[in-house]
From TrEMBL:
Belongs to the CoaE family. The lineage of its organism: Bacteria, Bacillati, Bacillota, Bacilli, Lactobacillales. Pathway: Cofactor biosynthesis; coenzyme A biosynthesis; CoA from (R)-pantothenate: step 5/5. It comes from Jeotgalibaca ciconiae. It catalyses: 3'-dephospho-CoA + ATP = ADP + CoA + H(+). This is Dephospho-CoA kinase. The keyword Transferase applies. The gene is coaE. It is an enzyme of class 2 (transferase). Keywords: ATP-binding, Coenzyme A biosynthesis, Cytoplasm, Kinase, Nucleotide-binding, Transferase.
Length: 197
């Protein structure tokens, strides 16, 4: 089984690419889903957040108020690192369990869609890493538009990750998503063909 890591900057187009790969029946392990599961009501992940961040990050129904926690961590490096420490191990375990499940199924290609792939060293479990790239100004523009953020909020989120230019340098496969989506799909098709998947 070939393990393809898929990453990029926030709002650079990872989901756009992973949805396209999923439409070709390629299985995807999505770290953002794992990151939600490990903080569901009743998990030790959610409990540890309450312990370290205070009850104000909970909504009235006891679930995580993602907007509030996001507002706290994206402009505060110390708190962001604390959250990463609290959840990192549980997210890793969630991802590696999925990988082990797929290994038993004898499939040719598995995609790991992980926003913080390089930041958390997941390249070690991948055979190759595909980086979805857009220049920083397009990334900022798309993030503001999609999430309805102010320029400062969007820039804080971008700055909370390894820069997209650095990810571009590290990439084994670079997908340029700054033009039309069809142009991006074409680059994916070329790679799939080349690899005979
Ligand atoms: C802070 C939280 C509650 C904000 O939730 P929200 O629904 O607003 O955003 P969502 O989870 O959809 O994430 C959106 C994007 O933000 C970026 N992001 C998320 N967490 C982080 C982080 N700790 N550091 C840098 N970027 C991050 C990713 O690119 C992600 O795709 C949430 O992002 C979270 O729990 N983050 C910590 C878990 C984590 O590290 N997730 C990344 C998985 S590798
Ligand atoms: N080639 C493109 N042309 C125009 N808009 C695009 C293109 N690719 C993606 N978008 C838009 O940009 C936004 C970000 O794309 P997407 O959600 O795929 O990014 P992402 O990397 O998965 O983001 P995140 O890190 O937050 O999960 C979305 O609103 C999407 O519709």
């Amino acid at each position: 089984m070939f393990i393809l890591g898929l990453t990029g900057g926030i709002a650079s187009g990872k989901s756009t690419v992973s949805n396209y790969l999923a439409s070709k029946n390629i299985p995807i392990v999505d770290a953002d889903i794992g990151a939600r599961e490990v903080v569901e009501v009743g998990t030790e992940g959610l409990q540890s957040i309450v312990t370290h961040f205070d009850k104000e990050v909970l909504s009235e129904d006891g679930s995580l108020n993602r907007k509030k926690l996001g507002a706290i961590i994206f402009d505060n490096e110390t708190k962001r690192e604390l959250l990463n420490q609290l959840l990192g191990t549980n997210i890793r375990e969630w991802i590696l369990t999925k990988v082990a499940d797929y290994r038993r199924q004898d499939i040719p290609l598995l995609v790991l869609d992980i926003p913080l792939l390089y930041e958390a060293s997941y390249q070690e479990v991948c055979d190759a890493v595909m980086v979805v790239y857009t220049p920083p100004e397009i990334q900022l523009e798309r993030l503001i538009k999609r999430n309805g953020l102010t320029t400062k909020e969007a820039q804080d989120r971008i700055n909370s990750q390894l820069s997209i230019e650095k990810k571009k340098q590290l990439a084994d496969i670079l997908i340029d998503n700054s033009n039309k989506i069809e142009d991006t799909y074409l680059q994916i098709d070329e790679w799939l063909d080349k690899m005979k998947f």
